[in-house]
């Protein structure tokens, strides 16, 4: 019997053994997407598709008990070790939910002997994650190594190329290679899940791809980095330095291997670029984002913000405009009473503005082993159930070439903190320069407890001055500050933070 004839016979036997009804010849209503194809003459699936279908039928077993789904995990750090622990601990519950066992059968990590609080003694060991990704001993590959290139990219690519489903939590990888990987997955028929890559435990990817699959989204914004939100919250509540907060965030497993990605805003930019693609259907463009992090925020900024009725949050904002997509990441003064201001600690929040649902706010833990592993697991469950969606919400060939909108001038209030020379007339001169650019000052705070005093090059003492402007253009503020610096009335770089009403 020819290849195709024996394939056709195997599928027909499989279908009729289950009492499924073909809607027309060769097409079933089994509900299993693998069987939604046409077997008419001349429409036969390619041989690699046939191989995958035969394998899926084999896995399906007798319809009552399926063969286990064998999971290979690369990277046993904070998230990877937590995932293995949950998969081992909750095995019975997961099997009941799925009707199929999920078993970790193989791992790739750097050190075999390191104590991670999990038992990996019975698992296949791989030094090389690419070899694990391609191994015949697994059905699904989970990448939890991190990094935009290197072994993470090589292993994910290798798995997708052979049609093996992949789950990853790696936003840096997706921001850089997401379109390539989605295309590879679509070509080979493999699923690619990355729920954990954005906002930790919040199911925002699933919400955008499925729940809001038909919605037209105008704007997405939010707090997308747990480490930064944790640092800003603790600095606001306690007398603790930026460096100590960061150390604690690292110890709690929130921060990236290189925490610069967190505190300088790049991690938020990676996540924002992924969300923007899912929201607006353009190719991923992490390099088109204006990014400013929180490393220059002082405890004094946070305290003054509180006195004035604000909190400081690192926001990622992307919106559709007539000229393309605008994306930015920066610290922002948000009113204390706003929903986003109530999102504290490691919590994240993603706000969506849509056509029919209008406004939606998703909030939850944005980092840490258990919430992140929970999102990884939800992707694994989807794959085990055969759920199929284009990784980026629309087929990758339908993505529009990215079109960058010019950053619109923010037309709102500003917080300005500067070290002004403590000499007669300095403040008046500063106000005059601002007035020349049409900037109205709402309030001025000069207090001795606001920041370390610097000494001007000419030996004059300085004092910290905080100004809140009324609605104005950022360009006007920047021009006047440059002029004030040139006049010699300030020392060092002024701090400038947008105030958004949201
Ligand atoms: N920690 C979080 O809260 C969180 C949340 C969401 C997403 N993520 C993402 O999940 C991924 C993992 O994060 P993490 O916090 O577990 O990081 P981690 O640094 O704790 O773990 C990564 C592990 O990969 C291992 N590794 C490095 N090179 C390897 C190689 N060639 N082969 C096998 N293993 C290798 C490292 O030794 C380390 O143990 C990253 O992409 C991260 O951005 C993390
Ligand atoms: N370092 C990231 C992990 C979650 O993506 C954060 O702090 O949000």
UniProtKB/TrEMBL annotation:
Pathway: Amino-acid biosynthesis; L-threonine biosynthesis; L-threonine from L-aspartate: step 3/5; Amino-acid biosynthesis; L-methionine biosynthesis via de novo pathway; L-homoserine from L-aspartate: step 3/3. Coiled coil: none annotated. The keyword Phosphoprotein does not apply. Keywords: Amino-acid biosynthesis, Methionine biosynthesis, NADP, Oxidoreductase, Threonine biosynthesis. It holds the Pfam family ACT. The keyword Oxidoreductase applies. It is an enzyme of class 1 (oxidoreductase). GO terms for molecular function: homoserine dehydrogenase activity; NADP binding. GO terms for biological process: methionine biosynthetic process; threonine biosynthetic process. Its EC number is 1.1.1.3. Residues 415-502 form the ACT domain. NCBIfam families: PRK06349.1. Belongs to the homoserine dehydrogenase family. This is Homoserine dehydrogenase.
